[in-house]
Amino acid sequence: MRFMSTVCITALVSAIMLLSVTESYAYKGDEFITPDSWNRHITSNGIKSTMNGISFGDTGLLKIGLTTRAKLRFSDETDFPIYQYARLRLSGVQAGEGEFVLNLNMRGAYDDTPAIGDRTYHRFYSGLYASRSYNEYTRSVKSLDGDFRIYQGNIELKNVIPITDISLGRIYLQQIDGYKIDGANIKLTPSEYFNIGVYYGLPVSYYSDLQTQVVGTNIEIPVASSGTSLKLAYSYFMKLNSGGGNPDTHVARARLDQSLNFNPISASFYAEGDLIGEAFVYEVGFDADIHASKTGISAYINGQATHNENPVNTYVSLYEGILSSSEYVMGGFKISQGIVDKLLLGIGYEGRFNFSTAYGDRDYHRVFANLDLVGLIHRNNYLSLIVDYYNVPEIKHQNGNERVVGGFRMTQVFLENLEGWIGVNVQNFQYRNSPVKMNGMRGMWNEINQRKNSENTTLAYIGGVYKPAEWCALQLDYVFEYADLFKNADLQPDSHTVEMWVNFIW
Q1: Which residues, at least 6 apart from 84, have a Cβ–Cβ distance to it below 8 Å?
Q2: What's the pTM value of the predicted model, to 2 decimals?
Q3: CB atoms within 10 A of CB 3
Q4: Cα(first)–Cα(last) distance of the chain, in Å?
Q5: What are phi and psi of 115, to 5 degrees?
Q6: pLDDT digits over 447-492, tens only?
Q7: Is 210 in a helix, a strand, or coil?
């Protein structure tokens, strides 16, 4: 921890002392403002969006993006994967009365030490390792070191045939299902109040051999003037090689969305019911926001119930996460108040109640607060001080947990094209979002005494982005991670990660 403290203190002093070029305020009118890099704390979004593109007049607009990502992770072993992303979109090409569009988004990856994946920690967190293992199993590549993916590769014919959009290739279905398939999707829009789509293809996975094909339809009834949208969907999955379990699975969905906007109040409501094989899932939610006189009030509540007694098609059960029964309700609220032009005080609550304990989920209560200072320490300095109180009750073999944790995040805008950020974040109660479900670990590692496992993950990070030109962005991040969940089980030591992103966007 001494190393982490040194890094934080050094960077904090440096950021405060460096000069910036303009005066900073927390508000423009009633809207609280932060720099673009504010959302890069903890989870950096290194792939920058493509810019305006290269115009060819009437023959189309070409957008190209190239990103190189190098990641050095060292703990008890050293891992050095390299990722190369390429993105291309050609749009605006006239085809009769319609438009031709070409989309391509792919990634290549290389890891010089595949054995790192044998570590339990990385087995859960490395998608590169998981896809390498699948490639080894199916002998689809000769080397374990590399991994290649096509996220999207398709052509679109928009209104070339009246009221019809056709997509062919590797596509994301934009309707309620949201599946990724290799196949075709045809969407008909006879009215602004109605559209229907049909699709067929092979579901895409980078981690398993699905042996599945799917056919389905989506119907949407949008009413923009009232903020109402009704969506219906039906999909039929056919397992090409039954190999046990149900070879075929029906998936039916219905969802209602309703938005409400009465200045200064905006709110939304949704209700969805899904029938996935023998499993029935229903979910409802409500969000509301009030913005007035530098005051922000937001609240939400949602709940889900899943009932599943029989196995379904392997692909569908894994994709949908339908592994057991789960019923819960959770909600929260946050109130923020601007104080003069450079201070913001926020306080909130979040809680969850589980009607069952599937997946290792647990009830919890969380009270949190933040104090944001904009431009007080130095011009164009954005600082947020964070404190969280957690109360996780004891359940079965797992201890309760009640403690106060804190941290901070800070961004300094040095120049118009140069920003840096630093922070310390302590995350409590990781069961809800963690891929590690402790109930499932008991039979695999009997030596783990789960009552000793703490639920804290400490992250300390520092990074920056430099844009020497509009079409180029360079980013560097360092993260120190201390995960009690793995440390106490002797699965993972302290982890240090350095990432470099080089983005070219045209």
Answers
A1: 66, 67, 68, 69, 107, 108, 109
A2: 0.79
A3: 11
A4: 42
A5: -60, -20
A6: 334 444 455 678 899 999 999 988 898 999 998 887 665 555 555 5
A7: coil
